[in-house]
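Z., the sequence and structure:
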Amino acid sequence: MRMIDLIEKKQHGEPLSKDEINWMIKEYTDGTIPDYQMSAMAMAIYFNEMNDQERSALTMAMVESGDQIDLSAIEGVKVDKHSTGGVGDTTTLILAPLVASVGVPVAKMSGRGLGHTGGTIDKLEAIPGFHVELSQDDFADLVNENKVAVVGQSGNLTPADKKLYALRDVTGTVESIPLIASSIMSKKIASGADAIVLDVKTGAGAFMKNVDQARKLAETMVTIGKSVGRNTMAVISDMSQPLGNAIGNGLEVKEAIDTLKGEGPEDLTELCLVLGSQMAYLGGAAESLDEARSLLEENLNNGKALEVFKLFVKSQGGDESVADNPDKVLPQAANTKEVIAKETGVVSEITADQIGIAAMMLGAGRETKESEIDLSAGLYLHKKVGDKVQEGESIATLYSNKAISDDIVEKVRTHVLLAETATIPTLIYDVIQ
């Protein structure tokens, strides 16, 4: 085969065969195919799409380009959850113990964050002593014993995706649905999940800015998952405003604990119940989504979910007293500052991505891979869309270990818009099964 022939074939809108895709990904991963040729292919895919067979073949070729995690030592149906990302996305910290509390094993491999705030692993490291590195045997033993463990991604998972992901970022092909879908699904499949629940975000703080784009991506990923033998479901959820009230690693851990006590923000709690219901259903804990939701709600109310969280934290070396005294255990910022409303009105919009950038400026996120995260930094929104605000009232509290500039205060104030009335955004747009 020759790469130039495959490029021209895709430029003419013709489908690539499984053998051609396998050869292309293998040769690219090995370095035989240069970046400039793969860039041409990525652009051809961007303009001419891929059919379902091509998307599945591309996904599995990337899975097979590196290590694949074997979770067969873990009993039961292993259900993984993936979010396409957003601002204040704390769901894994809640879902892992909540779903485990109904007997479904949650063997979660998560990453660190590059952007607004840290990833799940960064958030967990805000808990003193928490270990995110475990051997494969210890990981399996913990899940079998406690039904839950969360570790950092390790090994040589999907090296083809890593190369292609970096290339897409500099060639204007990031928004290609086949390339996004195969990237996400290859990592989930290589991580060993039996079933996958996808949280596809849409809105200002999400990668997919409108619902139609998000639905197309969700349907593509569900189709890929099922075509390669993984039971897959997707939820399309709102990210036009931040999820919950807390943005920042330690702050989000505290909010997760509040939610596990049944005292969390309404939107965060509802999304976790929707996603958790799908995870519990796919994991065999219930015969319907309604039954699964009832089980989860019961364990939020009776304290069982919080007890599983404590066990989860303790088993991975963390200070379990964080569940009872988060303000004493979690890192606390040296500096705080209030963002005061200059007028009276109703919050009509909170620009999620800009609020996320403000959190990053406070130290909660990474601008580069080398950036160090301040685990105490971030902000807490006292108001969400639809809430009334009085002049002189605090809209948000900012936290940082460095001086908090007036520019950051003004950035937050500017992107919490006030009006006479407001339309509260839909939280769940669609569920794709």
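The longest strand covers residues 195-202. The longest helix spans residues 211-227.

Let me know what you think.
H.
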